[in-house]
């Protein structure tokens, strides 16, 4: 099943009734759900053939065919040729394409959770300069299709360059619709906030700060205030948050909600303060091209020695670059100083001029970095909290105590 979905341009599937402990129709239904419609040839004896013909699944698709055993070789050959012709006509030829790399641009996999079909053929990179189609334009796909790709640690899918910006803009509009809908439940809102952060990062880096970027950022922050109305403590919300991959989007939304509860604990509940912190959560890592760079604690982290010069420069520059991007968000109060300081070292010589809000954000970022390394779990929290004790001084003291209280650590 995994090979059919991801690894090879398989156009025709033959299912033999001799498979042990397997129902032919069940296998076919699983294939259609995960990989979309493909020609299926069922091989079977007289009794199994009768059952297949009377099944609803078999009658629903003209691409299905039954060959009764024993069969002449020419019968099987002609059936396969007919099925291959259908696949060629309906999928535009080979599923694999070898192209110049710059013709295709990556899009975060999570963006595709917003849809059940898209207006573009979508590919993933099998190896350098070789791409395989995984979603066919205007054909429905299931959420399990995206989940299966995620399980294979595929983080990006690819669109042809001319289509990427259109897709990003459509995706942002879709996210805006979900976050403004009164019918969206809590889980849908949080997962859309996560997707929204990744879309903002991609749009900022491809185009810049557009009107849709401004609107979506505003809705992501506002939605957090709506979600927490009926949830009194962060621990309850944390247990419900879909923090599966620990990517930049999940980290940002974890930080956004933690900042909300810390503001409440510290009695800093002004709208301006939360909006500053909210935008900082969304943007502070927007210039990190690779999720694994978010595992780096600060410029003195030993892990940095494992990266090449290109990645090292990205890490060194991302704080200042993101702070500059934030100045274009005229519908938010200034948070550029917060973003610039979010990897401040826990040494007093660096913190003399930092205000309390910057200290709070730096502490939240450090905790989130630890969790990105240890895992967003209760055990991860227990491992991460001792690592932030190095900040227990000066203007960090109150936010530090607030975090301990939020996670019920005395």
């Amino acid at each position: 099943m995994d090979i059919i979905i991801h690894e090879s341009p398989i156009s025709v599937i033959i299912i033999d009734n001799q498979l042990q402990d397997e129902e032919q129709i069940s296998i076919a239904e699983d294939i259609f759900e995960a990989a979309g419609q493909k020609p299926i040839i069922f091989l079977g004896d007289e009794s199994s053939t009768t059952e297949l013909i009377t099944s609803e699944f078999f009658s629903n698709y003209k691409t299905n065919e039954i060959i009764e055993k024993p069969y002449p070789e020419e019968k099987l050959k002609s059936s396969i040729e007919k099925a291959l012709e259908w696949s060629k006509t309906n999928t535009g030829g080979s599923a694999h394409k070898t192209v110049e790399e710059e013709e295709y641009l990556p899009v975060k996999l999570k963006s595709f959770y917003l849809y059940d079909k898209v207006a573009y053929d979508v590919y993933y990179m099998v190896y350098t300069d070789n791409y395989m189609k995984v979603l066919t334009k205007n054909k429905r796909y299931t959420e399990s299709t995206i989940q299966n790709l995620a399980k294979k640690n595929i983080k990006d899918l690819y669109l042809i360059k001319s289509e990427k910006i259109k897709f990003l803009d459509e995706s942002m509009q879709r996210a805006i619709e979900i976050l403004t809908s009164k019918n969206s439940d809590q889980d849908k809102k949080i997962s859309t906030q996560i997707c929204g952060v990744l879309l903002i990062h991609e749009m900022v880096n491809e185009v810049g700060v557009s009107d849709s970027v401004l609107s979506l950022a505003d809705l992501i922050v506002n939605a957090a205030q709506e979600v927490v109305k009926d949830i009194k403590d962060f621990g309850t919300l944390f247990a419900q948050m879909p923090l599966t991959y620990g990517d930049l989007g999940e980290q940002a939304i974890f930080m956004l909600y933690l900042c909300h509860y810390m503001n409440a604990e510290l009695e800093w509940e002004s709208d301006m303060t939360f909006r500053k912190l909210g935008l900082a959560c969304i943007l502070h890592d927007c210039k990190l091209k690779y999720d694994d760079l978010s595992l780096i604690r600060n410029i003195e982290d030993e892990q940095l020695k494992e990266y090449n010069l290109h990645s090292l420069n990205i890490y060194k520059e991302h704080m200042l670059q993101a702070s500059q991007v934030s100045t274009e968000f005229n519908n938010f109060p200034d948070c550029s100083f917060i973003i610039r300081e979010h990897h401040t070292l826990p040494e007093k010589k660096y913190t003399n001029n930092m205000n309390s809000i910057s200290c709070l954000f730096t502490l939240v970022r450090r905790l989130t970095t630890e969790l990105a390394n240890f895992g967003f779990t209760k055990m991860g929290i227990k491992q991460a909290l001792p690592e932030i004790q190095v900040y227990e001084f000066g203007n960090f003291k109150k936010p530090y105590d607030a975090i301990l209280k939020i996670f019920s650590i005395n």
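The beta strands are 13-16, 40-44, 64-68, 96-98, 104-108, 122-127, 130-135, 156-160. The chain has a mean pLDDT of 89.
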